[in-house]
Design goal:
Largest sheet: none
Number of helices: 12
Order of helices and strands: HHHHHHHHHHHH
Structural class: mainly alpha
Helix content: over 70%
Number of domains: 2
CATH class of the largest domain: Mainly Alpha
CATH architecture of the largest domain: Alpha Horseshoe
Length: 279
């Protein structure tokens, strides 16, 4: 059975939502989704009709052009009429093309507004993600990989964490095997970790440790994976990863921190309670 949106909201929201209010919110979102789908379908039908008319006019112009270039005394008399008809049809073609352009702009605007409304209804996290996508769209993307990564880092430094996440994710999609993808994955992990979304953080750290084991970020990525496991109360898994850090990268700063964490997990050794034998 499909999970209801209300159940998802309850599972992901940081605050408690009364049951009745949650049901009303779910119904409202479903209604908006239905209205949006119907409006999008109507616009798409209109756009298809305009395209058909454009194609028909274009075809007629081609036919008239072919006729105008034929030789013959009987056609010479009609030359002006044919050219006039071509001009009229070209005017119609421009009108239909403009109408198509306006419909496409309307559809794009409607989608943007609908996405914003859904994001607002679904909660702060969804709204932040939507706003980040909109901000990221306004940024000019450098063609150079290094400059692209620097843009993401600059956004993070400015405090635009969600925008930076959008850019890091775009970087790893465009250049998944580039060595700098390790830095992008690591920063993604750090951003998720900072929001206490440890499962997402583990996935990003894991990509660094697995796909870029020789990267200078690999030791820290493995360490942070262990710390994320610990935050999820997976102590045995965390301990195993801390030990792995010390084995793989024994001379690294991450290994020093891993040893300290292992000591904390192990705790102080208990003193022996055995009594010395009497003399």
């Amino acid at each position: 059975m499909k999970r209801s949106l209300f159940a998802v909201l309850l599972a992901t929201s940081a605050c408690w939502v009364p049951v009745e209010r949650g049901r009303q919110m779910e119904e409202r979102i479903e209604r908006l989704e239905g209205e949006s789908d119907r409006a999008a379908q109507q616009l798409e039908e209109q756009r298809a009709a305009v395209r058909e008319r454009v194609a028909a006019v274009d075809k007629k112009i081609d036919e008239l052009n072919a006729t105008a270039h034929r030789t013959g005394a009987d056609l010479a008399v009609n030359q002006d009429r044919i050219q006039g008809e071509i001009s009229r049809l070209r005017g119609l073609l421009e009108e239909e093309a403009h109408r198509l352009e306006m419909l496409e702009a309307t559809l794009a605007q409607q989608k943007s507004e609908t996405d914003a409304r859904f994001a607002a209804l679904k909660g702060a996290g969804a709204l932040e993600e939507y706003e980040a996508k909109e901000k990221a769209k306004q940024l000019k993307r450098p063609a150079d990989k290094g400059e692209f990564l620097a843009l993401a880092q600059a956004q993070e430094a400015k405090g635009e964490r969600a925008v930076a996440r959008e850019l890091y994710e775009e970087f790893v999609k465009k250049w998944p095997s580039d060595p700098r993808a390790a830095d992008a994955h690591f920063r993604l992990g750090e951003l998720w970790y900072g929001e206490r979304r440890h499962r997402q953080a583990i996935l990003e750290y894991g990509k660094v440790a697995q796909d870029f084991p020789r990267s200078d970020k690999a030791p820290d990525a493995l360490l942070r994976t262990a710390e994320s496991m610990l935050a999820l109360d997976l102590r045995d898994d965390a301990r195993g990863l801390f030990e792995e850090v010390t084995k793989r990268y024994p001379q690294s700063t991450a290994a020093q921190r891993a040893r300290a964490r292992l000591a904390e997990l192990t705790g102080p050794k208990k003193k022996s309670s055995k009594k010395k034998p009497s003399q």
